[in-house]
Amino acid sequence: MNTAFSNLPDSWNEVDKLIGILRAWGISYLVGLDHSASPSTIDRDQQSLVVLIQRLAQYDDYPRVRDASISLFLLHPELADAVLQALQESEPEIAERIAVLTLATLYLQRLWSLRLTMALGHAPSFPEQRFAFLWESRNLPPPAYHDGKYGLLALQEAEQRRTGCPFTFIGDWQNQVDQLLLQEEAKHHQLQVPLLLPLEQRQYGQELNMSMRPGVDKAAIESFLQQLGRTFRKPARLYLVGGAALIHLGARPGFTLVIDVQVGGTNEGELIVAIQRLIQQMQVNVEFSSPVDFIPLPTQWEMHARFIGRYGTIDVFYFDFYSIALSKIERGNNRDIADVKLLVQQGIITLNELDEAYQEVLAQLGKGRYPRITPQRFSERYTAIRKLL
Question: What angle do CA 239, 245, 248 make, to 5 degrees?
């Protein structure tokens, strides 16, 4: 061992051994020291797998290693038997951590099933129904409900109550899937199954036990815009983005979790302050977000932005729907792709013009602000998803 690391605490040496084992199971994005294990030497008998699952769950001080159980389960659905045994045999605190990681896996698998299928070359198959008792006993929605999105939120709130910590657990769980996707997409697996957009369950028979209830519908968005127009007195521009644009337009029924907006004009700084103040007054979820956070924008995006109306001195638009569609394809979760399909089906965008915008964006990838989005990766994803539209 390198002498520079010889005085590390025993806990880190143990974690480093776990990282080596995880790498042998195919999780290569975790970086350790020198405890690498060969896939041919790791124990794969049932009891050894139960112990591995328990050991991972113990390391609350190393959440990136603990939460790698999510990637482990997604890559190896055959571990379901060992997970069930670990749930039954572990001490209550460890069993609860394993349960949370299992539920996070199931919700994330639903939310990202399309992109996981493209990355892995086959559909992810960690079994849902064998773990139905986990969400039922906690009054959480099933993974199929809104593609797992609200299950993740409900699970996070349950964890915040259980631990007494207001941490954003979803960020840690999602980070595992992000890293796994980058790892597997780099391998360019051949797709072995047809790519299908799964049906989303939109009804749930029980009341969700969530403090942040999903309630931002068209009326709530309109109320926010009207109140902002009454309280802000300087010229400015505001764009509705993402789900908020689709809901307000009437393209997608129901509600969205947040009102995504982009602001512009000479008074945009003051408008941001006014919006932040209004968020507190109205208790509404608003986030500053734009397709440019994900992809370069087509040069004609401002011309394609649809004017909604003037609210006081604020001109409000729908952000260019072609930019919205391409950013959703880049992000690639199931809800995103369903939204793009709606935009095409309802004639809000056309495939020919989407192709033109795609070609313009493709030429700007892999450099500047977007070095990690390679033209090859985006081209593969666009080609596969376009067949679903």
Answer: 115
